[in-house]
Amino acid sequence: MSDIIDSVPKPMDAQQLAAELVDKARAEGIDLVGPRGLLTGLTKTVLETALEAEMTEHLGYDKHDPAGRTGGNSRNGTRIKTVLTEVGPVELDVPRDRDGSFEPVIVRKRQRRLNGVDQIVLSLTARGLTTGEIAAHFDEVYGAKVSKDTISRITDKVLEEMTEWQNRPLDKVYPVLFIDAIMVKVRDGQVTNRPVYVAIGVTVNGERDILGLWAGDGGEGAKFWLSVLTEIKNRGVQDVCIAVCDGLKGLPESITTAWPLATVQACIIHLIRNTFRYASRRDWDALSKDLRPVYTAATEAAAAARFDEFADTWGGQYPAIVKLWRATWTEFVPFLDYDVEIRRIICSTNAIESLNARYRRAVRARGHFPTEQAALKCLYLATRALDPTGRGRARWAIRWKPALNAFAITFEGRIVPSTTN
């Protein structure tokens, strides 16, 4: 392998070099990946070159330089060390010095895997794979043995990071706050369904900001929600214009306690989906068509008239649907007072559904979790994967400026856009 690398003429740009190496490897029947593959050889060469450069900087002279014979500290051969990399195990010749003061940075003493391997483990965990499945993945793909305990220690490193994320300072104002839930299975004696709540804010710059994750037991009331919202408030959120939720017990009262000026809005998307739960699938299209005039009405009076027509048509067949809408009507009608641009933001599902899709995929792949903390860790890793900064931010809407203008007029004096946007 080293013969192939050494035979490539220099200088050469990166693309030419890669093409030349691949051609020579294929000509000699060498695989690109695997224990004796081209990538393994390249990784070995790059790491050993970097280690030699570190040793040169440490000693102050190049390898084979006569200056090293004048006494003092000097090179003292190499020692063999195997490290796990993104291309599999790589055996390195690590340089040594006589007095043992050399502290390499690129591959530290006692380090057995490169940081990229940790990122692979975290990425696979975020997708819901168990420690056993990840260990099998490394064995199958890289030919490397990684214990379940090692994988657990790697993922446990994010617990401190997750705590910092959960307690980070937040923006002063969020035009819209969504509170949603994802169900996870936790084994506590027996496997039970537990809700994990996620709060998602829309910033004044039109970004989705995932504020945090909270585990619940399904019996939450005003006390639970007030503690969650007080935590959010203590992290810097002074005002929320519209809080969108799904009729969770005690939540509307807790919202107005935390932010007296906030308007509690029933989630239209959830309301429509809950409607379909009571109906046969063959009626979904007709129900959707008849409901649309209700939630797109220009005024509350018009919406009430359209809903009476809906109730006359479907009430006999699906009385639970009529009861559902009437019970939620007080939280639904504020939606009708908003500008069409604000309505679009409240009804926009892309930013929420992309998040929920990742959460559900990770949870389904895992099946169930041994503890609540394991479930939260998995969901945090899925959140972390959405944004390289680890903040879980993303653009909410392309047409944000018209919505921002509508918010600024509707909630005059409460919305102050960032000057950096």
Automatic annotation (TrEMBL):
Q: Which residues cross the membrane?
A: none
Please give a single GO biological process term from the UniProt record: DNA transposition
Q: Which family does it belong to?
A: Belongs to the transposase mutator family.
A Gene Ontology molecular-function term? DNA binding
Protein name per Swiss-Prot or TrEMBL? Mutator family transposase
- Record bears the keyword DNA-binding: yes
* Record keyword DNA-binding present: yes
Q: What does this protein do?
A: Required for the transposition of the insertion element.
Record keywords, A-Z: DNA recombination, DNA-binding, Transposable element, Transposition
Task: Tell me one Pfam family matched here.
Answer: Transposase_mut
Q: Which InterPro entries match?
A: Transposase_mutator (IPR001207)
